[in-house]
Amino acid sequence: MLGFFISVSPFIANSIHWSRLPKTSFISIIFFLMTNSEAK
After folding, report:
1. How far is residue 11's CA from residue 21's CA, in Å, rounded to a whole number?
2. Cα separation of 18 and 2, whole Å?
3. Domain-located, residue 27
4. CA distance 23 to 16
5. Three-state DSSP class for residue 12
6. What is the total count of domains within the chain?
């Protein structure tokens, strides 16, 4: 879980910066990824 998060963090950060999404969307994506990876 933690390794997966660390591996995708740079990609998420780049995507957020590129699309200029608000921080609330960034938090929502983080929460979605955490719950999604825990479910698998």
Report:
1. 14
2. 24
3. yes
4. 9
5. helix
6. 1
Residue with tokens 């933690």: 2
- Is residue 8 a contact partner of residue 33, using CB atoms and an 8 Å limit? yes
pTM higher than 0.90 for the full model? no
Residue 34 sits in which domain range? 2-10+21-39
Q: What is the DSSP letter of 27?
A: H
CA distance 17 to 30: 15
Residue 15 lies in a domain: no
* Structure tokens, 29: 């994506």
Tens-digit pLDDT profile for residues 1-40: 667 777 777 777 777 665 565 667 777 888 888 887 766 5
